[in-house]
Amino acid sequence: MVEKNLSFPIKKICCIGAGYVGGPTMSVIADQCPDLEVKVVDINPKRISEWNSKNLKLLPVFEPGLDQIIKRVRDKNLFFTTEVDDAIKNADMIFISVNTPIKSSGLGAGEASDLKWVEASARRIASHAQGHTIVVEKSTLPVRTAEVIQKILCSSNKNKDKFGNKTFSVLSNPEFLAEGTAINDLEKPDRVLIGGDNPDSIQKLKEIYLNWVPSDKILTSNLWSSELSKLTSNAFLAQRVSSINSVSAICEATGGNVKEVAEAIGLDHRVGKLFLSPGPGFGGSCFKKDILNLVYLCKQFNLIEVANYWQQVIILNDWQKKRIYTNIVKSLFGNLSDKKITILGFAFKSNTNDTRDSPAIQLSIDLLNEDANLIFNDPKVTKEQIIEVLKNEKSNFKKDDKNLNKKLFFEQDIYKSIIDSDAIILITDWEEYTNLNWQKISNLMRKPSWVFDTRAILDSKKVRKAGINLWQVGEGNFKR
Ligand code: UDX
Ligand code: ADP
Fold first, then answer.
1. Do 153 and 168 touch, CB atoms closer than 8 A?
2. Which residues contact 386 (CB under 8 A, 6 or more apart)?
3. Phi and psi at residue 426, in whole multiples of 5°?
4. Sign of CA dihedral 465, 467, 468, 469
5. For 406-431, what is each residue's pLDDT tens digit?
6. Cα(133) to centroid of ligand 2, in Å?
């Protein structure tokens, strides 16, 4: 075993994967650590050229505040490139930030994460790294992935450096940023978690964060605790959303108002007021995937009751989407054939252009299967993105998907998107949707007109005063 010399300072870091996690995270690190050279690499040349775009509106990730950071540090100490091997070779520390979607086939299909991209990254690091390299897991990963990475790295014996040394240590440093608030979450994190068993490597990563994060917010743990903390943090958050969504259904049945109930619950400091907003079901790339991973892990250890407990969070989430859809169809006389429905918002939440697992996807499929015409409006999600997402769902269409294009419309102007609509469904909590002129909208819609507010963010009095029927999630005094 080669004696490791870990006394070198970290000067160059590389991040494999220029996505929603890698891009913003590395931008903030480069901004806070001007002496570090940060290279973000990706195998997708289109994505890299978008990150290098002169027009900051064309960055591939929309995140408030990100464009200003990119303007400050890009091509100074932050670089986006497809030269993966070269960046790996020169890096002292490499973050793995690639996609880890749920496996669609094979063992663990529908539950376990597909580690194809992580494994490919580890193999590439194994081949091209030189000297001692600290490898940091950033992506959300199943517990014990660090072990897989370690095994791949240790099995490499090619391309040794001039002293014949090639050593690695693996750390877990899960990302807790939420899209839409990523820059703030990165600049002022609640905590930074570093898991590992090599104190020197942990210290090296800690020193990077100490450039802007107070030391009492930097926690260290063993690798498995760190990996598990990420999964369970997201599971707890998702559980809160499913809990409040379950309460929204009870409120609708009993006459309660979910916002009033949420306020009353949240004032108990043991519960807290955040993450109690009812909605159309949680989306995004993490919640469902992480719970599925947790369920899979529990089943592997024969913890069936625990697996069932967490599975229920997803069951409730799917049910919330279905019950909203059912409500819409029933309100529109059970017939949507050729009716015009305006969908306000396609992103899974506001302040992001990310549509992964957005509740808008399932709802759109259900409505298209009812033969409705859909007009989409979203401030940041493009028409091309929506078409691509829906085309990828082809297998879920019961209707002939050849006609799909004739059923989908896009309109950037909110008011134009509403002309002759029978119903508006508000899916994403964009600020833009909260201050609309409901009288003007009422005049533009076909009668009887409906608004389905799946986030309970509209001013119900104004909507109803304009002569529009309104359904709001969790509002008990709804009369059909
Ligand atoms: C989440 C975690 O918050 C973050 O820490 C982790 O690193 C990645 O996963 P993200 O998926 O970006 O972040 O967004 P988040 O704000 O957590 O929202 C997830 C989903 O829950 C969204 O669809 C959102 O609309 C929904 N949600 C959230 C609610 O419906 N109600 C709430 O009160 C909060
Ligand atoms: P996340 O939300 O976790 O950041 P994204 O899908 O937005 O996920 O980004 C992951 C990025 O990782 C993609 O741009 C993808 O092209 C990139 N990627 C996947 N595998 C590799 C690899 N082996 N080398 C370099 N980049 C990769």
1. yes
2. 346, 355, 376, 378, 408, 410
3. -90, 115
4. positive
5. 899 999 999 999 999 999 999 999 99
6. 20
Q: Is 175 noted as a catalytic residue in this protein?
A: yes
- 210, 215, 217, 218: CA torsion to nearest 10: 70
21 Cβ closer than 6 Å to some ligand 2 atom:
yes
Q: Which domains does the chain have, with CATH numbers?
A: 12-221 (3.40.50.720), 245-480 (3.40.50.720)
Hey, which of 20, 28, 43, 81 would you mutate to test ligand 2's pocket, going by the most ligand atoms within 8 Å of its Cβ?
43
3-state secondary structure of 202: helix
Instruction: Render pLDDT for 224-256 as a digit per residue (tens, 0 to 9).
Output: 999 999 999 999 999 999 999 999 999 999 999
With a 6 A CB cut-off, is 356 part of the ligand 2 pocket? no
Q: Whose CA is nearest to atom 8 of ligand 2?
A: 99
Predicted pLDDT at 112? 86
- Cα gap 280→288, rounded to integer Å: 14
Residue 148, sorted as left (phi over 0), alpha (psi -120 to 50) or beta, turns out to be: alpha
Catalytic residue among 111, 175, 179, 227: 175
**Distance (Å) from CA 284 to ligand 1 centroid:** 7
Each residue of 350-391: pLDDT tens digit?
A: 999 999 999 999 999 999 999 999 999 999 999 999 999 998
Residues 288 and 460: their CA atoms lie apart, in Å, by 31
397 lines ligand 1 (CB under 6 A): no
Residues of the chain with pLDDT under 50: 1-5, 159, 480
What's the length of the chain? 480
Whether 430 is in the pocket of ligand 1, judged by its Cβ within 6 Å, is no
Q: Which residues, including other chains, have CB under 8 Å from residue 154's CB and lie 6 or more apart? A: 168
Q: What are phi and psi of 166, to 5 degrees?
A: -160, 100
CA angle 327, 401, 377 (to 5 degrees): 55
Tokens in use for 390?
A: 């829906």
Per-residue CA distances from 49 to 15, 18, 60, 392, 461 (Å): 16, 11, 9, 24, 47
pLDDT score at 142: 81
**How many whole angstroms separate alpha carbon 286 and alpha carbon 234?**
7
In this predicted structure, what is the pLDDT of residue 152? 92
Nearest CA to ligand 1 atom 14: 178
pLDDT for 166 equals 85
**Considering only CA atoms, which of 151, 144, 152, 97 is closest in space to residue 128?**
152
Q: How far is the CA of 439 from the centre of ligand 1 (A)?
A: 33
